[in-house]
Automatic annotation (TrEMBL), chain A:
InterPro entries: DH_E1 (IPR001017), PDH_E1_Alpha_Subunit (IPR050642), Pyrv_DH_E1_asu_subgrp-y (IPR017597), THDP-binding (IPR029061). It comes from Sphingomonas yantingensis. Its EC number is 1.2.4.1. Residues 1-26 are annotated as: Disordered. NCBIfam families: PDH_E1_alph_y. Pfam families: E1_dh. GO terms for biological process: pyruvate decarboxylation to acetyl-CoA. GO terms for molecular function: pyruvate dehydrogenase (acetyl-transferring) activity. The keyword ATP-binding does not apply. Residues 40-336 form the Dehydrogenase E1 component domain. It catalyses: N(6)-[(R)-lipoyl]-L-lysyl-[protein] + pyruvate + H(+) = N(6)-[(R)-S(8)-acetyldihydrolipoyl]-L-lysyl-[protein] + CO2. This is Pyruvate dehydrogenase E1 component subunit alpha. Residues 17-26 have a biased composition (Basic and acidic residues). The pyruvate dehydrogenase complex catalyzes the overall conversion of pyruvate to acetyl-CoA and CO(2). It contains multiple copies of three enzymatic components: pyruvate dehydrogenase (E1), dihydrolipoamide acetyltransferase (E2) and lipoamide dehydrogenase (E3).
UniProtKB/TrEMBL annotation, chain B:
Residues 2-78 form the Lipoyl-binding domain. One of its GO terms (molecular function) is pyruvate dehydrogenase (acetyl-transferring) activity. This is Pyruvate dehydrogenase E1 component subunit beta. InterPro entries: 2-oxoA_DH_lipoyl-BS (IPR003016), Biotin_lipoyl (IPR000089), PDHB_mito-type (IPR027110), Single_hybrid_motif (IPR011053), THDP-binding (IPR029061), Transketo_C/PFOR_II (IPR009014), Transketolase-like_Pyr-bd (IPR005475), Transketolase_C (IPR033248).
Length: 349, 477
């Protein structure tokens, strides 16, 4: 069935006359900050490429969802958060958010290979990783679950009055789940400090946004709950950071939740087993050529006078870190068999 | 002929109440829909409305009278043309006939659960009424308290409320959320008074959105709080079961022990009276099959209190299955500052030597009733209340089996893949040498619970079925 034609502009619902966040400004990063963004994004890219490689070698099993193409979102947004104070929660495409929150690549990679040294002791795998120390709360395998759970984390921030904000990521696919709207309703009703981040990478597995969503402008999805939404260029790390600043000002100001729709793109398949029949190779290549978030930062750096030669050692350093993580993950022992029965419950009854 | 106005029932299990206030006096003319009086029970207050037009000829029960039996004539109404002065005073005692459905529940709050309790069913002989009657049986288990501890009579409802209030007083992280828990004082009045004491920050009314608030509660627990999530009934928790199982139960394991989820999901479970299949199901076996969960299903008020306190303190996610038919039942509760019971320990409710009857929740009442009748026939039954369904206290069950060599499992729930099935498996695997007869299950029939009173009665467990099974395993049938 064809999608109904776009409605005329005047038939769009009127924006109610209530306070709204200001239009975010692109963040003005210093050279050091920009270099740091570049480094973090490149770390995610190289890490994910390596994970893909290890998957191909059979060292990583099950589902493995790579973040390649979406790096600017996690890095731009989370650079505005305070690790250990603000909480982050996401779905199963979680490696990038963890790296952007400063979690050691070695324990992430070792989890992917199912080793005892993995961050979940090898019992979670790619989709189930957590670091309560960083206030990174997973890593959830059920599409949309992290949205209600994130509202719960925000509830805790408010209840304890700890000044923290929850950033809850979900995809364009999860944006159609019923519980997302249950969480929206209560989050606004109770003015919970939460930023709902919709990472719209255009495809829910193989289904494009406009084949699955009657309203494909996902930033509008909070309107009927009075939650304002902003659409952001998710391929531009400075736009992402600027949006985070605006969203944080809104949420920390006690004005309740806000939605950020990050328009982004994943280069790889939904998971490693994706046949990729739903989009053309040309489409992917065009995004890589024109909108790659890492290349964009590189151009910004060049404009600031940073030369290719200056970036080289940095790139080599990242390759080294990722290489070490992979070696560690390959060589670390598997969990002791006795671990099978531990941590089912906390207490003994 | 004057119309007799009778004491209405607010619920199928109500037997008596307080005639709190008359809003009319003798000689007043009333028409249909006028509020005549206010009736109170421990659970609710209801306005009593006129159905017919006429003149109040006689007020037979004064306001402020407690313990007015359902069906008692409380006033006489003279119809048009009838001389109100000549109407005779009614007989004092309640009549046995079914009271006319004169009362309608407070219409302004159209409670989806309480409305199911239609007053006219008060005296109808139903399966749930039998369960309710059986639920008054007290065992003679040795109390797990110091000798000489004072006991106070309390309803299960009050015991649950006190457990929450005590834990909320001692730990700021504990809060209650759910539908109608705050301003309405609880759909079943279990949270009565909590809002007044703890305020709206800690006693939180939610929208009707089980999946969402179960997720929020679970997330709050992951963040470090200790939520008590009330489901109006566990039937509605089906909407939220994803968070109970996928989020709450599994995360500790999946995170290698990093992410704890100390949450209590509680609410009524099992068959309620005449509410049909969608509101009458026992989810004990469902949750008890999930590693990572603690599942508790108490019988009496002391267990309700002591185990709920333990549940709130537990570092693990707990599913706490109450029973609506039990809420109004009173039992002895130890008067102690901090009465906490151990999770995962069954108890012998009634010692015996000929046969072991294993049950939990309201099934314990049925089992005790059966045991009492069996004693009259010379069969000495031991009754075990499992109390916790996960982890299951198999040691207590097996110890009893070793003594009696015969066992019947009683469960107000379906037979297939039930707790009863599990106990049978345990007996086979670990108690085979002690068995002198096959273990039998006495459960509800394997059908959705029907509405019709006669069919409902056929579908539910009762003492007669337990007695029949006991006679089979003791070869006395």
């Amino acid at each position: 069935m064809a999608k109904s034609p776009a409605r005329a502009a005047q038939s769009d619902p009127q924006i109610p006359n209530r306070e709204r966040p200001a239009e975010p400004q692109r963040y003005e990063a210093s050279k050091e900050e920009l270099l740091d963004f570049y480094k973090q994004m490149l770390l995610i890219r190289r890490f994910e490429e390596k994970a893909g490689q290890l998957y191909g070698l059979g060292l990583i099993g099950g589902f493995c969802h790579l973040y390649i193409g979406q790096e600017a979102v996690a890095v731009g947004l989370q650079s505005a958060l305070e690790v250990g104070k603000d909480s982050v929660i996401t779905g199963y495409r979680d490696h990038g958010h963890m790296l952007a929150y400063g979690i050691d690549p070695k324990v992430i990679m070792a989890e992917l290979t199912g080793r005892a040294a993995g961050i979940s002791k090898g019992k979670g795998g790619s989709m189930h990783m957590f670091s309560t120390e960083h206030k990174f709360y997973g890593g959830h395998g059920i599409v949309g679950a992290q949205v209600s759970l994130g509202a719960g984390l925000a509830f805790k921030h408010k209840y304890a009055d700890d000044g923290g904000v929850c950033m809850a990521y979900f995809g364009d696919g999860a944006a159609n789940q019923g519980q997302v709207y249950e969480a929206f309703n209560m989050a606004e009703l109770w003015k919970l400090p939460i930023i709902f981040v919709i990472e719209n990478n255009q495809y829910a597995m193989g289904t494009s946004v406009n084949r699955a969503s009657s309203e494909d402008q996902l930033y509008k999805r909070g309107e009927s709950f009075r939650i304002p939404g902003i659409q952001v260029d998710g391929m531009d790390v400075l736009a992402c950071r600027g949006a985070a600043e605006e969203a944080l000002a809104w949420v920390r100001g006690g004005k309740g939740p806000i939605i950020l729709e990050m328009k982004t793109y994943r280069y790889r398949g939904h998971s490693m087993s994706d046949p990729a029949k739903y989009r053309s190779r040309d489409e992917v290549q065009a995004v890589r050529d024109k909108s790659d978030p890492i290349e964009a930062v590189k151009r910004e750096l060049e404009a600031l006078g940073v030369t290719e030669a200056e970036l080289k050692p940095l790139e080599q350093e990242i390759r080294k870190v990722v290489g070490e993580a992979a070696d560690f993950a390959e060589n670390a022992p598997e969990p002791e068999t006795g671990e099978l029965y531990t941590e089912v419950l906390v207490e003994t009854y | 002929m004057a119309i007799e106005l009778k004491m209405p029932a607010l619920s199928p299990t109500m037997e008596e109440g307080t005639l709190a206030k008359w809003l009319v006096k003798e000689g007043d003319t009333v028409k249909s829909g006028d509020i005549l009086a206010e009736i109170e029970t421990d659970k609710a207050t209801m306005e009593f409305e006129a159905v017919d037009e006429g003149t109040i000829a006689k007020i037979a029960v004064a306001e402020g009278t407690d313990n007015v039996k359902v069906g008692t004539v409380i006033a006489l109404l003279a119809e048009e043309g009838e001389d109100a002065g000549s109407v005779e005073a009614p007989a004092a005692a309640a009549k046995d006939d079914t009271p006319a459905p004169e009362a309608s529940a407070d219409a302004k709050k159209d409670d989806k659960v309480e409305d199911s309790a239609h007053p006219s069913q008060e005296k109808v002989d139903t399966g749930t009424r039998q369960l309710f009657e059986a639920a008054s049986n007290e065992g003679d288990a040795a109390p797990e308290v110091p000798e000489g501890t004072e006991m106070v009579k309390q309803t299960v409802r009050e015991a649950l409320r006190d457990a929450m209030a005590e834990e909320m007083r001692s730990d700021d992280r504990v809060f209650v959320m759910g539908e109608e828990v705050a301003e309405y004082q609880g759909a079943y009045k279990v949270t009565q008074g909590l809002l007044d004491e703890f305020g709206s920050k800690r006693v939180i009314d939610t929208p009707i959105t089980e999946y969402g608030f179960a997720g929020i509660g679970t997330g709050a627990a992951m963040g470090g709080l200790r939520p008590i999530v009330e489901f109006m009934t566990f039937n509605f928790a089906m909407q939220a079961i994803d968070h109970i199982i996928n989020s709450a139960a599994k995360t500790n394991y999946m995170s290698g022990g990093q992410m704890r989820c100390p949450i209590v999901f509680r609410g009524p479970n099992g068959a309620a009276s005449r509410v049909g299949a969608q509101h009458s199901q026992n989810y004990g076996p469902w949750y008890a099959s999930v590693p990572g969960l603690i599942v508790i299903a108490p019988y009496d008020a002391a267990d309700a209190k002591g185990l709920l306190k333990a549940a709130i303190r537990s570092e693990d996610p707990v599913v706490f299955l109450e029973n609506e038919l039990m809420y109004g039942r009173s039992f002895d509760v130890p008067k102690l500052d901090d009465f906490v019971l151990p999770i995962g320990k069954a108890r012998v409710m009634r010692p015996g030597k000929d046969v072991t009857i294993v049950s939990y929740s309201i099934g314990v009442g049925v089992s005790l009733e059966a045991a009492e009748k069996l004693a009259g026939e010379g069969i000495d039954a031991e009754v075990i209340d499992l109390r916790t369904l996960r982890p299951l206290d198999t040691a207590t069950v097996l110890k009893s089996l070793k003594k009696t060599n015969r066992m019947v499992v009683v469960e107000e729930g379906w037979p297939t893949c039930s707790i009863a099935s599990e106990i049978v498996a345990v007996a086979m695997e670990q108690g085979f040498d002690d068995l002198d007869a096959p273990v039998l299950r006495v459960t509800n029939e394997d059908v959705p619970l029907p509405y019709a009173a006669n069919l409902e009665k056929l579908a539910l467990v009762d003492a007669a079925k337990v007695i029949e099974a006991v006679k089979k395993v003791t070869y006395k049938g």
